[in-house]
Amino acid sequence: MRKRAVLVVLLLAAISVAAPCIDFEAGVIRGGGLSFLFGSYLEAKAAMLAETGSTSPGSLGRSLATLFPDWGVGAYGEARLLSWLSLRLEPRLSFMGASRLALTDTELPFCRYSVSFSTLVVPLLARAKLNLGPGFLTVSAGPFYGAIVGEITTVDRYVSTTMKGALTTDFGQVQFLGVSGGAGYSLPLGIGVAALELRADCAITPATGQEGVLGGEMFPLGIALVASYGVRFGGGAR
Predict the structure, then answer these.
(1) How many CA atoms lie within 13 Å of 54's alpha carbon, on the beta-carbon side?
(2) Cβ neighbour number for residue 28 with a 10 Å cutoff
(3) Structurally, how many domains does the chain consist of?
(4) Which residues lie across from 234 on neighbouring strands?
(5) For the chain, how are helix, strand and coil distributed in percent, rounded to 5?
(6) CA distance linking residue 42 with residue 99, whole number of Å
(7) Contact in structure between 187 and 156 (CB atoms under 8 Å)
(8) Is 7 helix (H, G, I), strand (E, B) or coil?
(9) For residue 54, what are the domain limits?
(10) Whole-number Å distance between alpha carbons of 118 and 167
(11) What tens digit of pLDDT does each residue of 150-183 get?
């Protein structure tokens, strides 16, 4: 899996070298929204708390998903292939995770639990542009590589106490692949181009960690509104 990260870096370098010969755009990106998490990692926790929330034989509690923030910051390099089509490499550092509320079988809340982590997300996006008014309508889609960076933090908040835990991971120890896509609008502004997009990053392979270090599978999903600003240069810049 670490070889994939090296390939991504080499691809970015190759695009940068080719920049003087093509219409190239480079800039920064930042966004925020909501994060979700699916898979056996949280389901095992939900099953345990369902039993804890039982107040009578044969009944179980349940867990409800609650809102959890997603935010990220990064940079991008974009090479124009056709007048309406470009290829963008967009490494981002994102904060992701999920939160749930555990209820007893009588619908009383007794624990709010969450898991969170920072992730390096590197999408390779095909971006189509359509002239619309003073700017362009944009649609993006493509695969991404993801790797958890640093600690995976868990928090359990009961009525009378709060329990926290942290699992420290080396870079590349917990990785996953996914698809990224979205739509938005870009507008020439000053010396560059400003854009606003609604974007989703969805894992399609589980983040499990080497030798099952997590004890379960995680499928992260982030939905965010992202803003970017970049400057064009190279052979076709205008």
Answers:
(1) 11
(2) 12
(3) 1
(4) 23
(5) 15, 65, 20
(6) 9
(7) no
(8) helix
(9) 2-125+144-178+203-221
(10) 12
(11) 899 999 999 889 999 988 777 778 899 999 999 9
Cα separation, 180 vs 73, in Å, equals 15
What does the chain come to in residues?
238
* Residue 9 domain-assigned (yes or no): yes
Which residue type does 159 have?
V
Which distant-in-sequence residues (6+ apart) come within 8 Å of 24 by Cβ?
15, 16, 18, 77, 78, 79, 80, 232, 233, 234, 237
Rounded to two decimals, what is the model's pTM?
0.80
Q: What is the pLDDT of residues 35-68, one digit of tens each?
A: 999 999 889 899 999 998 988 888 899 999 999 9
Q: Is 22 domain-assigned? A: yes
Is 134 domain-assigned?
A: no
The values of phi and psi at residue 23, to 5°, are: -75, 115
Q: Tell me whether residue 115 is in a domain.
A: yes
